[in-house]
Amino acid sequence: MKNASSLPLEERLSAFVDGELPHDAVARLLADVAQQDALRDDWHAYHVVGDVLRNEALAPRAADSAFWFRLEQRLAQEPGRPQSVTKPSLVARPSGPANQRWAWLVGAAFSVVAVTVSVGLWQRMGSSVDAELATTTPTAVVATVAPEATQVMIRDPHLDALMQAHQQLGGHSAWQMPSGFLRNATFEGPAR
Amino acid sequence: VMGNWSARCLALALLIAGLVAPALAQELSVNAWLMRLHEASRHKTYTGTFVVSASGHLASAKIWHVCDGDQQIERVESLSGTPRATFRRNDEVMTFFPTAHVAVSENRDSLGLFPNLLKSSASDIGAHYGIKHLGVERVAGLDAEVVQLQPNDLLRYAYRVWSDQRSGLVVQLQTLDTDGKLLEQAAFSELQLDAPVNKAKLSQMMDATQGYRVERREVQKTTPQAQGWTMGKLVAGFQSAGCYTRPVALLAGASGRTESTMQWMFSDGLATVSLFVEAFDPTRHVREGAAELGGATRTLTRRQGAWWITAVGEVPPATLALFVQSLERRK
């Protein structure tokens, strides 16, 4: 990465968390971070998000769902939500306004919402939530947006829970025994 | 004398043929044909790879299925998405999430209902779907008979089914929308019939919950009347298939309250619809309208005064709207 040390501090920090900051820029970054309290908070926030994405043991449980609902509502009201979030990297991120960094965080938050779908209220915890999922899920979530809709469709853990309840009692279909049960056990649905 | 005997035999044979021919035709009725598929899935032992494609997403799982007399055991090991293994022993279902160390236990009594449903005259699937034989195709290495079940109205989707000619086992199932567009497909990409499957071992695996936190999803049987609800007008072809309550904490839990959600099920024999009724909560219930949940499953949410109604089903959105409109609060 060229001129990594000349990038804004927040972007370098974000790149470091993503494992994309060149080795020689790391020492400089750490020295800079140590001098700014606000950056230490960012550092901590990135790790919390990363930990939640990568480790289901830290993922929120039912008690946290009020927070997720509020987050989801807030995200739905955000005017400038990213329309397509791709792999979060400095290369993909234009050097735009200062809040560009948050595009990644919002993307990650989308991931968390998507991940909590399986955690949700059934306590179905997303498990292989690795770095790859962390980077690809935002795209998958955005892909569920109806093109004509002005509001981004975020996977709703409540609807997912109802769908599972529907499937649990779905034995009233002739398809259930030949293939419906297998279908439901195999298919998790998109963006999970 | 011999001539008379032969003539009598021939007459008898013709008579029997005359009686049997309509009976065979009758056997090709939708219900009888479905019954054959159902029995094939119950009595066969097989392993295979099952692939579901819907809404541009692919999911696959490895399947083990064994049947020994009355007991069936099935193991579905996901190859995509969240690592999980679902075991079914008759109507008892256990899903293991190994990374989370959580096992979800469910009882699906309704799985056992179907043969009776098919045998009863109340469930006349043929009144709402026509059956069309489309020939023979090869799927998963087997010669499969292709049949399309075409609805007689726009309230339901069409299905195209590939079943093994010899055993009747369903090897591929497609759901098509009212324009004939493919909504989802479930198929075996590879299937080994009569494969050696160790039933005792599967059963042991299903019971091996040590190290797992077991969560039970329990429902209580109730009636819509007891819950204060009725259908002003039944949606054509759909019959009530049971009403249940389940703790809302399992579904939402945001408020931490333990009021229960009502789930009223309907089925036309192939498609199912669930109507969920919850007390309206402005903090959680914010999004009304239709949504897709992947593949053929649709949802429609609407507020009705103090209630929050969600319809979920493998039917066109317009059908869900009819269900929501028809649901009435009894005074």
Question: How are the SSEs placed, and which strands pair?
Answer:
The complex is a heterodimer of chains A (192) and B (331).
Chain A: H1 9-17, H2 23-34, H3 37-54, H4 65-77, H5 100-119, H6 131-143, H7 157-168, H8 176-186
Helix pairs in contact in A: 1-2, 1-3, 3-5, 4-5, 5-6, 5-7
Chain B: H1 2-27, H2 30-43, E1 46-54, E2 57-68, E3 71-78, E4 85-89, E5 92-97, E6 102-107, H3 114-119, E7 129-139, E8 142-151, E9 158-164, E10 170-176, E11 182-193, H4 199-207, E12 213-217, E13 220-222, H5 224-227, E14 229-231, E15 239-247, H6 248-251, E16 260-267, E17 272-279, E18 289-292, E19 298-304, E20 307-313, H7 317-326, E21 327-329
Parallel strand pairs in B: 6-12
Antiparallel strand pairs in B: 1-2, 1-11, 2-3, 3-4, 4-5, 5-6, 7-8, 8-9, 9-10, 10-11, 13-15, 14-21, 15-16, 16-17, 17-20, 18-19, 19-20
Radius of gyration of chain B: 23 Å
Order of helices and strands of chain A: HHHHHHHH
Arithmetic mean of pLDDT of chain A: 58
Q: Biggest chain pair contact, residues each?
A: A-B, 52 and 93 residues
Termini gap of chain B: 80 Å
| Helix percentage range of chain B | 10-25%
Count the helices of chain B. How many? Answer: 7
Number of helices of chain A: 8
Biggest sheet overview of chain A: none
**SSE string of chain B, helices as H and strands as E:** HHEEEEEEHEEEEEHEEHEEHEEEEEHE
How far the N terminus sits from the C terminus of chain A, by CA atoms, comes to 32 Å
Class based on secondary structure composition and strand pairing of chain B: alpha+beta
